[in-house]
């Protein structure tokens, strides 16, 4: 496929609007709303609710619109994954559903590879090359992804055929390799998002039923659940259930807490049921210690592997649903929502919102170098420069 080069990437200040939360919630002022498509030239607005946000964004946050197909194509190329490869200064992003240009019955998903060229002054992106790639064999309908070894671990939602879907490792310049593709012979539903533990290398992922509801997957064989895969033993186990549509997953720094989003509000056909969850849940990660001798009470070893406990509501999205989720090294929590990016501290207090124009919100995003974030907003890809000390925990260390 063809490559697009963009050398015209202006940098603009990020507009900051300080809002009195008490006045907003008692009706004294009108709550800020998400700009609609006709207001797309206005750029991103940062809604600040707390002084804590200032340490995150710094004194002069900036924004850049890296790519936009608005006005030339309705295709939502910038949707999910959003994996940044620091060693090559590249982004990998999966599209939303694209209608096939062939006679195929089902829609397709493409992967975008975006190579960045930094400004010689160290202030932003000077140019980029955007290539649209067809997913390699095995990675059917890719969605989420995460850095893994020298490449990317992709979530393959699967096709209508049995025996498809799961997690695939795509090394750089090599064919993809299956990592885990079934739950003891039962196909996953449509694997959505994934994170890798720094502590033991285990892989944690979510598996909602969106593929079935969107018409490209068979009847579900499993509930909507979250799983842990042990790369050393091959054990795959369910670690959390009870979701309507589990979606994003992220560890807090130190990995004593894991966050899992439930996007049950959104149905597979694009409709909404506002009685359903648009919620981030927090779980404590318990790591049982091994018995040191036969004399240790058996109760001290309920499992040699981590498990989750103390599920509680961490936050409810202001607009839309919390999709992709990440933490910074300070423990603040970021989620792609219907208005853009919403940010909470580790206690669940909403600090602010990066309100992104276009009306589609942000499904996923990632941290890059020295305080930058890349935001996937369907037809637009944005870069936001925060305080240089703000770093994503995923790539830290």
Automatic annotation (TrEMBL):
Annotated Gene3D superfamilies: TolB, C-terminal domain (2.120.10.30)
Entry-linked PANTHER family: PUTATIVE (AFU_ORTHOLOGUE AFUA_1G08990)-RELATED (PTHR47064), SMP-30_GLUCONOLACTONASE_LRE-LIKE REGION DOMAIN-CONTAINING PROTEIN-RELATED (PTHR47064:SF2)
UniProt name for this protein: Calcium-dependent phosphotriesterase
Domain of life: Eukaryota
Coiled coil location: none
Pfam families: SGL (PF08450)
SMP-30/Gluconolactonase/LRE-like region domain: residues covered: 177-263
């Amino acid at each position: 496929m063809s490559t697009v080069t963009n050398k015209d990437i202006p940098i603009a200040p990020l507009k900051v609007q300080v809002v009195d939360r008490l006045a907003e919630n008692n009706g004294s002022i009108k709550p800020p709303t998400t700009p609609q498509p006709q207001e797309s030239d206005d750029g991103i607005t940062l809604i600040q609710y707390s002084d804590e946000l200032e340490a995150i964004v710094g004194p002069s946050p900036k924004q850049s619109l890296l790519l936009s197909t608005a006005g030339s194509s309705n295709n939502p190329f910038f949707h999910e994954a959003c994996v940044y490869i620091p060693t090559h200064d590249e982004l990998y992003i999966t599209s939303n559903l694209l209608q096939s240009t062939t006679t195929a019955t089902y829609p397709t998903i493409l992967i975008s590879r975006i190579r960045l060229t930094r400004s010689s002054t160290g202030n932003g992106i000077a140019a980029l090359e955007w290539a649209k790639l067809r997913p390699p064999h095995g990675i059917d309908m890719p969605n989420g992804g995460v850095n893994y070894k020298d490449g990317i671990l992709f979530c393959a939602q699967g096709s209508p055929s049995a025996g498809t879907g799961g997690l695939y490792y795509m090394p750089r310049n090599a064919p993809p390799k299956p990592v885990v593709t079934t739950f003891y012979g039962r196909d996953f539903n449509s694997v959505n998002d994934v994170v890798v533990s720094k502590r033991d290398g285990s892989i944690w992922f979510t598996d909602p039923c969106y593929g079935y509801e969107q018409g490209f997957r068979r009847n579900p064989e499993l509930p909507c659940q979250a799983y842990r895969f042990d790369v050393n033993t091959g054990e795959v186990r369910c670690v959390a259930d009870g979701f309507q549509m589990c979606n994003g997953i992220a560890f807090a720094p130190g990995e004593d807490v894991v966050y899992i989003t439930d996007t049950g509000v959104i149905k597979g056909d694009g409709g909404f049921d506002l009685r359903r969850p648009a919620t981030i849940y927090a779980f404590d990660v318990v790591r049982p210690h091994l018995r040191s001798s036969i004399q240790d009470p058996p109760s001290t070893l309920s499992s040699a592997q981590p498990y989750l406990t103390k599920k509680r509501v961490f936050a409810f999205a202001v607009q839309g649903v919390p999709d992709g989720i990440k933490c910074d090294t300070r423990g603040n929590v970021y989620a792609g929502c219907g208005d853009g990016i919403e940010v909470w501290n580790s206690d669940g207090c909403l600090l602010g919102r990066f309100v992104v124009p276009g009306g589609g919100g942000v499904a996923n995003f990632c941290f890059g170098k020295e305080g930058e974030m890349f935001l996937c907003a369907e037809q637009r890809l944005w870069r936001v420069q925060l305080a240089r000390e703000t770093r994503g925990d995923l790539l830290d260390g």
